[in-house]
Design brief:
The chain has 14 helices and 8 strands. It is an alpha/beta fold. It folds into 2 domains: 209 residues, Rossmann fold (3-Layer(aba) Sandwich); 80 residues. The strands form 2 sheets. A 6-stranded parallel sheet has the order 3-2-6-7-1-8, sandwiched between helices. A two-stranded parallel sheet has the order 4-5. α12 links the parallel β6 and β7. α1 packs across α2 and α6 packs across α7.
Amino acid sequence: MNSRLKADVDYLDRLNTSQLNAASYGIENNGLCGPLLIIAGAGTGKTTTLAHRYAHLIINGIFPDRIMLLTFTRRAAAEMSRRAEQIVTQALKSNRSTNKIAALGSWTGTFHSIANRILREYHQNLDLDPSFSVIDKADAADLLDLERHALGLQTKEKRFPQKTTCLEIYSRTVNAQRPLAEALELWFPHYQDREEELNLLFGRYVERKLELQTLDYDDLLLYWSYLLEDEHMVRIISAEFDHMMVDEYQDTNKLQAAILKRLRPSGTGVTVVGDDAQSIYSFRSAEVENILEFPNLYDPLLKSSNCKRITDLHKAFWMLQMH
């Protein structure tokens, strides 16, 4: 934790009341009140608000490398870092902290890129080689197809799902954290009679990846989750950060929401922004229920919170609705 820096300009004066409340929430307590859920519809300036909150935390004493900001695209991560750096740079014209500017955005990235970085650091805890490779969707489908052919599943009289469909089933099952039988019933009912063969195929696929020391994109989240099953690792990793922020929270899947909750069970320092009216990544097992149930997830832990009340929306005093 560092001391607050004196800003040369009122960098928050461009925000409206709702945006200002979100950007400055809990700053009197080093921003460590929480969690904060910002419901932000289209055109409400959510990116501007989140960037200002990020910058406001830095100007008020939080080192950038103590802030993890999770996004869903590399472009969004780059844009968030760019905006925050611009705000901090303009605000600290005569009191510029070079080390803070340099570190800004150091832990800003997609869920998968941050997971990759953490797994590289703690690979030994997961029996992974430090130089493990990460394969893209096309290569993952090809690897699945090799195992599919090795098992002779493509020769069945009744047509077996193609490699891309197999990967989709596997991915949906992993990200939704559901048993294969349940995933098939919910999303692929026409392949329910293939459960036994698919289960065998996925088992071989996992074994093959371990042999090759290769992870697919879904594994990045899955292994991050595995790592956090160790309470000691939870304490180590969570201690590295004062704040954890998530953009487009409505697009998180069950696994991503569980990772955040595991890292911050109390919700302290958690800020999530999203629009409960949309979820564009449903094909990645995004569950809009994550944002709808966010208040209930932390409600028992916040009854005794001494953080100031922002709004009475849905009886959740850590929520803020931006219009």
